[in-house]
Design goal:
The complex is a heterotrimer.
Chain A: H1 2-11, H2 17-43, H3 45-48, H4 82-118, H5 120-135, H6 138-148, H7 154-163, H8 167-181, H9 184-192, H10 196-232, H11 244-252, H12 260-287
Helix pairs in contact in A: 1-10, 2-4, 2-12, 4-5, 4-7, 4-8, 4-10, 5-8, 8-10, 10-11, 10-12, 11-12
Chain B: H1 31-40, H2 50-68, E1 80-85, H3 100-109, E2 114-115, E3 129-130, E4 133-138, E5 144-149, H4 163-174, E6 189-196, E7 199-204, H5 211-216, H6 224-227, H7 232-235, E8 250-256, E9 260-265, E10 278-283, H8 288-296, E11 302-303, H9 311-316, E12 320-325, E13 329-335, H10 353-362, H11 365-373, E14 377-379, H12 402-411, E15 415-416, E16 422-424, E17 427-428, E18 430-436, H13 440-455, E19 459-465, H14 467-475, E20 481-487, H15 495-499, H16 501-505, H17 518-528, H18 533-550, E21 553-559, E22 561-566, H19 595-599
Helix pairs in contact in B: 10-12, 11-13, 17-18
Chain C: H1 6-35, H2 52-61, H3 68-80, E1 86-87, E2 92-93, H4 94-129, H5 134-147, H6 151-165, H7 185-222, H8 226-234, H9 238-267, H10 270-275, H11 281-290, H12 294-322, H13 324-327
Antiparallel strand pairs in C: 1-2
Helix pairs in contact in C: 1-12, 4-5, 4-7, 4-9, 4-11, 5-7, 6-7, 7-9, 8-9, 9-12, 11-12
The chains are: A mainly alpha, B alpha+beta, C mainly alpha.
Chain lengths: 301, 617, 329
């Protein structure tokens, strides 16, 4: 439900324009900065990380050590440093989210653009299928797929995540393409003799780009949370790779006694998700705050 | 007769140490005593008469109770036990039960003809105590046994137990329409006839050492007048199964699916009602953490699967104690001797005993066991448990010596590459450890071992698979190494099932690694046919020595069976395979009863039994 | 999507579409679940008495050895009669399992929805009356914080803080598993409320944050409109303006949000139910998937999809009824 509202909120203007533009740019700055920081940390993981994330220095003495100066985030039940695991976990979480969103964006844009441009029966059939796919809550579908085909390799997990997340985007793109299709300059292009694919690529898609960018930014935040939840259930990223969600899962059954294992990766997820959302909102306001994309009834959850 | 050399300290405070069912003096059956039992079959020798023995026990019991003097009439009783568990029962109808949880509860509601003794002897009828059957008579040719039912045995709905019920139960269990999992266990029984209304007679196809066990203990008897009305094929989906009617010392009260199962003492039991007023299983479905929390928070009284992470809180609490009881489980990491890629050839890596020994040396077993289990397990000494008399803990183990391990691997030509992993002729020294995804302990062990192997230059991956996949890959020998958790046979000869060459080549065998060593085989065989216990023990020792130095597996841990329970409960001795076996003899003394104990004490009436209120939770 | 045939026509065509969608979903789910690897009788593998032959018998008994198409047709025929099959993992009819789980999810999600919407709208009102102020920005940051949070993590933290560190609430479950049967009606009610509190508050925080953000945007959009300025010129009090004129118009789109929330009612907040061991639909489906309980998973997902479809249908209808601009057509 929240992501359905996500689209709606993204679609609505948020108050007086001038005041908000300043506000938005300030927010975009902070959010963008935070995200950039996290990405940099992830890229420089081998240099920054204080310890080896899989090393088990002292499985008796250092097991489940509380946060201290030498282990700021504490250690887990195998005496591995949680801070180092979180730093390396950023790589997994961010790359999974980014790649899955990229796949979703590509699929959604293509599908929506084709449906919107073709119109008529093709459009109707394609959208009916999307409606059916949207009817199944994404979480349930993912749980069903990942639990039934257990232990998928990482790349396949990314593909599955991406393949289940493009439906809402395709509707948005289709709506935009529908309205763009009727504009004069398209008719002019057709009159000049441009072929349909050419019109699509050269004229229509560039105008859809802002929507896509906003959706992608919001989507990354959404997928990070989704992947974390799935890893928490044991269905997402499989060991030995560790994402933030799997670290939370490591600590979930000791949350009373070794709370630091679950707390810190969770905070990181929240921070990243907030940054993505703020950035997405800011980008949306910057590109076209008045545009109502008709997304208020989308369900992408 | 044997005596256990290892004294199993059972931390109970029960003044009623009933000698007949105490674990302190268990007889580990050997070939010698087994053959004696076989020879004695069919002869009504006085010491062996179950009737007299039963009477003797009752006299002992009565004396002990009289000396106790806690209550004027009847033994002390009362109390409500709440057991926290993470699994619901699948069925409470004995012919269909598969899960342990189902058995735990059904064995309180239903009774077999005779109960197995605490020594878990399954050969002949030694140690068995009367249950539904007061006594039994062997035919001279041992091809039939007549059981004499207790004349006053009643079902929970008041009807009397008759031989017809026994006949019906066995026929039902063997009926293919029901698809009962215990059908194969009854294959030795040809049929059950009725000599008179209280005497069912079991007829066997041939003699076997386990025929009495098969007849008297495998099947819990169910009433024909209740379950006979429905055709077997429709029985599994009948709602009748959710309100079981048996003859046990407890009767069924209610079952709220995935939430609660409640049983109450059967006040009209023909021998003795259960001493506890009620037992409630509080279920946190598939959620071990929640089940543990309920116990630690005091919402539940008992928890049967105590883990290391719970120990600090238990130590802090003054209301809760741990009771240890002997276990027959041990865990080990087995090397697959066959090549998983082409099962008819030997494993290229593990065929070399030096490699196996080196890998064993790389693992600091004591510390990984301590990390995972804290004090709840001890490092294993081999494919055996300390509870068995034949276990020799003085045999030298392969010691933890990673330096030596590295030297051995060096000498074999495995040299570390740039990434630290050893290679030879371009091949890396790497393998994978398979564990079932449902076992947190084994997964943790694998991860710890992975790190220790890495330190000597061996690359190990941990493959966590679903239990049925685990099973399948073991059967088809498609794995490198796997961590097994095995239930030892009380009889030491059971070792052949997993480690002998005969087992290695048998279809469906349990020798998953395909270990075969002729010297070991012959040593075990001699031990089995030894003349006297000390000789047998020495021979077993030799056999183990051979096995241990051959390193077919890395012997990891031997869990200590622990239940956590509130102190006010006085428990009966706990049987190794089933702590719940004597649940009906537990109680809370009157002066220690809490409000919850008393809350429904008056609420366990005769009427409120078979209606299951499956309403809201 | 209003057609020229008016409301009734719209409703009928949407209903037909909804049925088609549910049919497609049923087929997809059925095929998906039956082509997945795994075996519903895998849980029995631990028991050495369960042989391959026995499992083959069970498969035959439940018709699992038939070709997929036969199974599918039989399933459709049964569902039409209201028979959702037999749950392998719970050993009860699937309908019974769903009937037990559904009320639990309704209670949890319903409570959370009421709390969330009330809280969210209230928060939005406060923010909209002083846009740009420190209060507005703080509350805005707060709702952004909860809006972006993963639900399972919030549930874990809530449990940690309010059940472990400051033990005011019970850790899990919907009622006290033991004593509930023996409580007086008043005590039983209190017991239920105590168990409901944490999961409902957690869910309410998450949904309320989204509502607050959306509602605030709506309120601010309506504020500059002409009729508001007229009312102010007429001398109507600021408070009355806010509550009567602005809110009423700003609530209209929120009504459609309410309809969209209906799916949550039936699929359950999966992660929240899991963390708090709340025995609702989400929990049941999670369990059913891991035990390969085909009939239960299929039924659960179908119910979820049907609800989502009905939910969006109701949302559109409600929106059409409430929005005077559409009604006029």
């Amino acid at each position: 439900m929240r992501s359905s509202i996500r689209e709606s909120v993204a679609a609505e203007p948020i108050g007086g324009r001038a005041h908000w533009t300043r506000h938005v740019i300030r927010h975009a700055g902070i959010a963008g900065g935070v995200l950039a920081l996290i990405v940099v940390v992830a890229l420089l993981a081998p240099l920054i990380s204080p310890y080896d994330p899989i090393a088990q220095p002292d499985i008796i003495g250092l097991k489940n050590a509380a946060p201290s100066l030498i282990h700021p985030f504490g250690t887990d039940s195998f005496s591995r440093d949680v801070l180092s695991r979180c730093i390396y976990g950023a790589r997994v979480s961010l790359s999974v989210a980014a790649l899955a969103t990229a796949i979703a964006v590509i699929l959604g844009t293509l599908y929506g653009a084709i449906a919107g441009y073709a119109g008529g029966v093709i459009d109707a059939v394609m959208m009916r299928l999307v409606d059916a796919a949207l009817a199944i809550p994404r979480v349930l579908l993912l749980i069903a797929i990942l639990a039934l085909w257990n232990g998928l390799p990482l790349w396949l997990l990314i593909v599955v995540l991406g393949a289940t997340g493009w439906f809402g985007l395709s509707r948005m793109v289709r709506a935009q393409v529908l309205s763009l299709r009727e504009l004069d300059f398209i008719a002019a292009a057709r009159a000049v003799g441009a072929t349909s694919p050419r019109i699509l690529i050269r004229h229509i898609l560039p105008n859809v780009v802002p929507t896509i960018i906003v959706a992608a930014t919001l989507g990354i935040g959404h997928v990070i949370i989704l992947e974390a939840g799935l890893s928490y259930l044991g269905l997402g990223v499989q060991p030995p790779s560790a994402s933030w969600g799997s670290i939370i899962q490591d600590g979930a059954d000791q949350v009373g006694s070794a709370w630091w294992i679950s707390l810190f990766p969770g905070l990181l997820i929240v921070t990243t998700a907030i940054a993505c959302n703020a950035l997405g909102d800011a980008l949306h306001a910057a590109f076209d705050p008045r545009q109502i994309t008709g997304a208020s009834t989308e369900i992408d959850s | 007769m044997w005596r256990d050399d290892v004294a199993l300290t059972i931390l109970i405070e029960d003044p009623l140490k009933l000698p007949a069912i105490s674990m302190m003096h268990t007889a580990a059956p050997t070939a010698a005593s087994r053959s004696a039992a076989t020879r004695n079959e069919g002869r009504l020798a006085w010491p062996r008469s179950p009737r007299v023995r039963g009477a003797a026990m009752l006299i002992v019991l009565a004396t002990a109770l009289a000396c106790n003097g806690e209550r004027k009439q009847g033994p002390a009783s009362g109390g409500t036990l709440v057991v926290s568990t993470a699994s619901d029962a699948d069925y409470l109808f004995p012919p269909l039960i598969i899960s342990t949880q189902g058995r735990e509860i059904a064995e309180q509601l239903f009774e077999p003809l005779a109960n197995i003794g605490d020594s878990l002897n399954v050969f002949g009828d030694a140690g068995f105590t009367p249950a539904l059957a007061d006594s039994w008579t062997w035919a001279p040719d041992s091809l039939s046994i007549a059981f004499h039912l207790h004349p006053r045995a009643l079902w929970h709905d008041g009807k009397p137990v008759r031989a017809r019920d026994v006949q019906f139960t066995i026929a039902l269990c063997k009926n293919p329409d029901l698809a009962s999992p215990i059908a194969p266990l009854l294959s030795g029984i040809d049929s059950v006839t009725i000599a008179d209304s209280l005497t069912p007679v079991f007829w066997f196809k041939r003699r076997s050492v386990q025929q009495f066990y098969d007849a008297a203990y495998v099947a819990l008897i169910v009433p024909e007048h209740v379950y006979g009305a429905i055709p077997a094929s429709a029985l599994a989906s009948s709602p009748l199964l959710r309100t079981p009617i048996g003859s046990g010392r407890f009767r069924f009260r209610r079952w709220v699916p995935n939430a609660t199962i409640e049983i109450v003492s059967n006040r009209t039991h023909y021998r003795a009602p259960a001493r506890l007023d009620r037992v409630i299983w509080s279920i946190a479905p598939s959620d071990f953490g929640a089940a543990a929390t309920r116990f630690l928070a005091g919402e539940a009284d008992m928890f049967a699967a105590v883990r290391a992470s719970m120990l600090p809180q238990i130590a802090k609490s003054d209301k809760v104690r741990l009771i240890e009881y002997p276990g027959f489980r041990y865990g080990y990491m087995i090397f697959n001797m066959r090549d998983p890629a082409s099962p008819s050839s030997p494993n290229p890596l593990f065929r070399n005993v030096q490699v196996r020994r080196a890998l064993t040396m790389a693992v600091n077993r004591a510390s990984i066991v301590r990390n995972v289990f804290d004090s709840l397990a001890i490092p294993s000494v081999g494919p055996t448990v300390r509870a068995m008399a034949t276990t020799d803990t003085t045999i030298p183990q392969i010691a933890y010596d990673p330096q030596r391990a590295m030297q051995i691997l060096d000498s074999l030509g495995w040299h570390p590459g740039p990434d630290g992993i050893r290679t030879r002729n371009g091949k890396k020294l790497a393998f994978s450890i398979m564990v079932p995804s449902t076992s947190m302990d084994r997964q943790s062990l694998a991860v710890l071992m992975q790190d220790q192997f890495k330190k000597i230059g061996v690359a190990v991956t941990v493959s966590s698979v679903e239990p049925n996949v685990f099973e399948r890959q073991q059967h088809s020998h498609k794995f490198d190494a796997a961590i097994e958790n095995w239930n030892a046979d009380p009889s030491p000869g059971g070792i052949r099932e997993s480690w002998s060459s005969a087992a290695a080549h048998a279809e469906g065998s349990k020798n998953y690694g395909d270990y075969a060593n002729a010297a070991f085989d012959s040593e075990v065989d001699s031990a089995l046919s030894a003349g006297s216990p000390p000789v047998a023990r020495r021979l077993y020792s030799h056999a183990f020595q051979t096995l241990l130095s051959d390193a077919p597996a890395i012997w990891l841990y031997e869990p200590r069976n622990m239940i956590g329970i509130q102190k006010r409960f006085h428990v009966a001795p706990l049987r190794a395979d089933a702590w719940w076996a004597h649940l009906a003899d537990w109680y809370v003394p009157e002066n220690e009863q809490t409000a919850r104990d008393r809350a429904a004490a008056g609420d366990a009436p005769a009427g409120a039994d078979s209606t299951a209120a499956s309403g809201n939770k | 999507m209003a057609s020229n045939r008016g409301i009734v026509g719209t409703v009928i065509s949407r209903l037909v579409q909804a049925i088609v969608v549910v049919a497609i979903v049923t087929t997809l789910v059925f095929v998906l679940i039956h082509t997945a690897p795994g075996d519903p009788f895998a849980g029995a593998m631990d028991n050495p008495n369960v042989s391959e032959a026995l499992r083959a018998r069970w498969r035959a008994m439940y018709g699992l050895d038939q070709p997929l198409l036969t199974q599918y047709l039989r399933y459709i025929a049964n569902v039409a009669r209201g028979d959702f099959g037999w749950s392998f993992s719970m050993h009860r009819p699937v309908l019974d399992v769903l009937k037990d789980a559904l009320p639990n999810t309704l209670v949890l999600a319903g409570t959370a929805l009421v709390l969330g919407f009330a809280g969210g709208i209230g928060l939005a009102l406060i923010q909209a009356t002083r846009p740009g102020s420190r209060t507005d920005r703080t509350l805005g940051a707060g709702s952004m914080f909860f809006y972006a949070m993963p639900d399972f993590w919030l549930a874990l933290m809530m449990m940690l803080i309010f059940a472990y560190w400051i033990p005011i609430f019970p850790v899990a479950g919907s009622v006290d598993p033991i004593m509930h049967e023996y409580m007086t009606p008043l005590a039983a009610l209190a017991d239920r409320l105590k168990h409901l509190a944490l999961p409902a508050i957690t869910l309410a925080l998450l949904s309320g944050a989204a509502v607050a953000r959306y509602q605030r945007a709506e309120l601010l959009r309506v504020l500059p409109d002409d009729y508001v300025r007229t009312a102010r010129a007429k001398g109507v009090s600021e408070r009355r303006i806010m509550l009567v004129h602005v809110l009423r118009n700003a609530l209209i789109p929120t009504v459609s949000l309410l309809g969209l929330s209906l799916p949550v009612l039936f699929t359950g907040a999966v992660f929240i139910e899991r963390v708090f061991a709340w025995p609702g639909m989400g929990w049941v489906i999670l369990n059913a998937v891991s035990t390969r309980d085909y009939p239960l998973v299929t039924a659960g997902v179908i119910v979820a999809a049907a609800t989502v479809t009905i939910g969006s249908l109701l949302a559109d209808m409600l929106y059409a009824v409430v929005d005077p601009r559409i009604r006029g057509r």
